[in-house]
Amino acid sequence: MILPVVVVVIDGSNPDIGADIAMANVIWNAHCGVFVDVVQTVVVSAPALQVLTQEDCLAAGHVVSDEEDDLYSIGRGLGTDVVAYYIHGSTFGDNVLGCAAHPPDRRGFWVVPSQFDFVWAHEAVHVVGDNPHDVQDRDNLMWPFASEVTNLPADLNETQCQRILSDPALLSIESIVLNL
Amino acid sequence: MDIYQQLPEELRDALRAFENGALDRIIARKRPEDFAALRTLLSAPANPNDRQRAIYALGRWGNPSVVPEIVAVLPGLKESHAYTAIDALGRLGTPEARAAVESYADHSSPQIRKFVVEALTRIADPAAQGTLEKMARADRTDWVRELAARRMKERLRK
To answer: Average pLDDT of each block of 10 consecutive residues along chain B (158 residues)?
Structure first.
């Protein structure tokens, strides 16, 4: 199965997209048989969105801020359900590396460049399959403390994979080939 | 004694997390012991990143009694932490908060001035409108000027 995504880079952020996607593919493919396919990368000059203000990063009862509304409008209409954003930072704090809360009609997540190349994959797992944190297994990708994940590359368990594989954002390789 | 040993365990975990959901859930619950612990992080020797997240949380708590403490630490904050403090002061919205925010309206960093615009947009005090108008008219950076003009119109509509 393939997860097609659009990646949006807000100019001023300096991400290593290749490393993040490579790690996502190592983890997602090893455990769930899913590959991430970046169908387009869009670099946008939007200085007002470099450092984002959000009302919260809650999975339930999330309130969408004006800036978040502006950010999640970018990269739409390019053929993917999920859009990933790289920003420079947020008012949440310098040690907050990502957030998967998003406007209800525009699925996606944002990350800031960091030393942890699995944060992108972690946020994607929140969005695709609507997976919560795993607070039992420190080897799991969804352990909530980045510096404490053990035995990298991180794991995904069977339940998480089932949730990912049942997500409508995924396409089968056969369907992509037939469309060609 | 280590300040972190005195924090409620859930708050300590929320500050360790690389996402903000756990801290947002603590803010939504508004327990007095969490407010007191967050307030302690402003003045005690704490990790600067944790202090930034405390400022974020206190700004959303809605209790303006912390404004003098946030105003006191603001000048010593690095730029990315000042974004959070200016945002917090805008949410708390007292005259002292407004004055502190306005003192950054001519800051050399356009990102700082962006947060001044956003903070002033939230502050109901009519005096905030004057500074916002000035920034919409004369800020030296195009996108900050445009943002101020947009927010001023939105503010007037409300």
So the answer is: 85 96 98 96 88 97 97 97 98 98 98 97 92 97 97 84
